[in-house]
Design brief:
The complex is a heterodimer of chains A (304) and B (326). With 304 residues, chain A is mainly alpha-helical. Helices cover 70% and strands 1% of the residues of chain A. Chain A contains 13 helices and 2 strands. A two-stranded antiparallel ribbon of chain A has the order 1-2. In chain A, strand 1 and strand 2 form a beta hairpin. In chain A, helix 11 runs antiparallel to helix 13. The radius of gyration of chain A is 24 Å and the shape is elongated. Helices cover 78% and strands 2% of the residues of chain B. Chain B is built from 13 helices and 2 strands, in the order αααααααββαααααα. In chain B, strands 1-2 form a two-stranded antiparallel ribbon. Chain B starts with a helix and ends with a helix. Classes of the chains: A mainly alpha (304), B mainly alpha (326). The interface between A and B is medium-sized, with 34 and 36 residues.
Chain lengths: 304, 326
């Protein structure tokens, strides 16, 4: 270092906040932006389903049995076009899919948030206190992760029974271990930093240091895991519902819609099963694209 | 080595016991099994009688010992639906599942390893990228959906293969197997591919990562410098060195394949253990559910143990490290 750098340009570069920089990095990938766009469109249509669907597929007064099993694009008695066809009850598949998406997303997002909260608390506790607490928590995590998620979920639902709340509980129990492990990993590194010792030295309590100082610094890898896990949760819920141990028939998710159409698949009425399947597929791929890009943006080792 | 094995064996036993306790809590402590067993209109007196006969009026810890003692003898009670011992109901279905899982495992290796090696040798070409994109799809798409699409394409539209069922079986070593006759094989192709796809994606990734790492090693450069052909270097030197992680992970994955077979068997109506589990859940056949659970836990623990053994045989570094530690 021979000359002192001019402070002004450095200041200018600093004017971009880390959040903004991350957003700009994220936008650099067109594929990820498409994924994000699809994700937002799907989330909005799920939230506003009752207002945007052509009919309420579970209001029997709006269904006409005359319109059953119509192929995509056919016109109903009332002059409405069924763009994606109808099912054996004369239900508009497009409406059914949007409602199914609503159910799938609701279950997956709720479960992921709950699992995130539990896993985060457990992981931070394990890393912060170390010793026996750490061993105990991580043994449970290891034991659970040594069994495939689908198996654990099946067992839980076999014991708990059917229902939306039960599916959410099963997904939470299946997922918390991933977050606990991720948080513990990064918290172990952060715990050694001086700012934690400083915070303790100031006389702050354990809870405050853990959640106000340690936690925010372990968030980036957690966001990446959580994004990918939402996709996993959607897929797992769909699988469970397809197997008939998930959500009840009165509130079908995409998985249950696919299962309902399964019996008609062999007779050639492909649309009842295939279109909900495509919706499921698009949702999962979009979330994975976003998750992949987030991983690249938030991983400091890959930073240019 | 012996000390290491004993310690691993101890850990395995602990895992089985832990699962047995969890299953006990799940089945006995949460909810009273009697509620499912008897008619809801039964009188309180009948209810108590059944509870006494099943030993449910005794303290929980005593019940646990009875349950645990029965487990040790392989007694899981009688299936409510089939009226036979729950374990024998499951064991009758075991060969069908094992055959499917093993066939799928073979498919995953036979197709996964070469594809992964190609992707690892040419990571930046169209082929390499294409293979990786395919493996990402294999990972992220739900298994049952892939199965449905296969049925739609190959059974409904093209009509080449049957959509489900097991087809004809042949007697082989006292078991009924599908792979020895054409009809049975035809029924097994789609479910086996379906079960294999996820693992194939995994094998491709492992083989690719392994190949990229091995290709940079000095012994590969040396082998090439020595005048060995590219073909021989890849087929002998690279392949041998990437097989360790592939074998380890796949061994571990055999257990999860049996678990995933639940989905595949349901989609393709394959009469194995997985379909039995789903049927039993729907019919509340608890003895069968418990028996399936304990069997699969046992299989998992056994597989983990065997893989550890195999690993130390395959990789001399592991063996030597243990010898050095003694």
């Amino acid at each position: 270092m021979t000359d002192i750098p001019n402070p002004t340009p450095a200041k200018k570069a600093k004017a971009i906040s880390p959040l903004r920089a991350a957003m700009l990095d994220f936008a650099a990938s067109p594929l990820a932006m498409i994924g994000l766009f699809v994700m937002v469109v799907m989330a909005l249509s799920a939230i506003f389903a009752p207002w945007i669907t052509p009919q309420n597929p579970y209001d029997l007064s709006q269904l006409s049995i005359m319109d059953n099993n119509m192929p995509p694009g056919s016109e109903s008695f009332g002059g409405m076009t069924y763009w994606l066809g109808t099912d054996p009850q004369g239900r508009d598949m497009l409406s059914a899919i949007i409602y199914g998406l609503r159910m799938s997303l609701m279950v997956a997002v709720t479960a992921t948030l709950c699992a995130l909260a539990i896993g985060m608390a457990m992981g931070i506790t394990a890393a912060y206190f170390g010793g026996r607490v750490d061993t105990l928590i991580m043994r449970v995590v290891d034991l659970q992760l040594s069994f495939p998620a689908i198996l654990v979920a099946l067992i839980l639902l076999a014991i708990l029974g059917k229902g939306v709340d039960k599916v959410i509980i099963a997904l939470v129990i299946v997922q918390w271990a991933y977050y606990a492990r991720t948080v513990r990993g990064s918290a172990l590194v952060e715990r050694q930093r001086d700012y934690i010792a400083a915070a303790r030295g100031l006389g702050l309590g354990h809870a405050r240091v853990m959640f106000r100082h340690l936690l925010p610094n372990t968030l980036p890898p957690l966001i990446v895991v959580a994004t990918v896990q939402i996709a996993q949760a959607i897929a797992l819920e769909a699988t469970l519902s397809f197997l008939g141990v998930g959500v009840p028939v009165t509130e079908p998710s995409l998985g249950l819609l696919i299962a309902n159409g399964y019996s008609y698949l062999l007779s050639g009425a492909y649309w009842i099963s295939v279109y909900p399947g495509i919706a499921l597929l698009v949702a999962i791929i979009a979330i994975n694209l976003v998750g992949d890009q987030l991983r690249d943006v938030l991983n400091p080792r890959l930073r240019r | 080595m012996v000390a290491y094995l004993l310690r691993r064996l101890g850990q395995s036993l602990l895992a089985v016991i832990a699962m047995a306790v969890l299953v006990f809590i799940g089945v006995y402590a949460i909810g009273n099994p009697v509620d499912i067993l008897i008619n809801p209109e039964a009188t309180e007196r009948q209810r108590l009688e059944v509870m006494e006969r099943m030993g449910l009026d005794r303290p929980l810890w005593e019940q646990f010992w009875v349950y645990f003692g029965n487990l040790l003898q392989g007694d899981f009670g009688r299936s409510f639906v089939y009226g036979e011992s729950a374990m024998s109901v499951i064991l009758q279905r075991l060969p069908a599942t094992m055959e499917l899982a093993l066939f799928a495992l073979v498919l995953a290796i036979v197709f996964g390893v070469p594809l992964g090696v190609i992707a690892g040798l040419k990571p930046d070409t169209f082929t390499g990228r294409g293979i990786m994109a395919g493996s990402i799809l294999g990972f992220s798409l739900p298994n049952f959906w892939q199965g449905l699409m296969m049925i739609l394409i190959f059974a409904v539209f093209l009509g080449w293969l049957p959509a489900g069922g097991r087809g004809q079986t042949t007697e082989f070593l006292g078991m009924r197997v599908s792979f020895l006759n054409w009809d049975g094989l035809k029924h097994m192709i789609l479910p086996a591919i379906n079960l294999a796809l996820f693992k194939m994606a995994l094998v491709i990734r492992l083989a690719r990562a392994g190949t990229r790492e091995v290709m940079m090693q000095d012994y590969i450069k040396f082998a090439r410098a020595k005048g060995l052909s590219y073909r021989r270097v890849v087929l002998v030197h690279v392949l041998k060195n990437i097989m360790i992680p592939v074998v380890t992970i796949l061994g571990l994955e055999l257990g999860s394949m049996i678990a995933f077979a639940v989905v595949t068997e349901t989609v393709f109506a394959w009469p194995g253990m997985g379909k039995l589990l789903i049927d039993s859940i729907n019919r509340l056949d608890r003895p069968v559910i418990v028996a399936y659970l304990m069997l699969i836990v046992f299989l998992f623990v056994l597989i983990n143990f065997l893989v550890d053994l195999l690993y130390s045989v395959l990789d001399p570094r592991v063996r030597l490290a243990q010898r050095g530690a003694q």
